[in-house]
Amino acid sequence: MATAGARYEARTGNIWSYAHRGDLTGLKAALARGVDVNMSNTVGWTPAHAAAAGGQTKALRFLAKA
Hints:
It is built from 4 helices and no strands. It has 66 residues and is mainly alpha-helical. The protein is globular.
């Protein structure tokens, strides 16, 4: 069974994990590399889904403005 961050590339990093942990540095770095803020992973989650699931309101606000 796939998990929220099951498949990712070096370019994306694990943007879903960054979002879930509230790692704004990781999120900013991923977006600076050109990662699409609305990309979904193997289970259909966007980084915003992961941030919301982790209760990371600052990360969710950042993603909403990106």
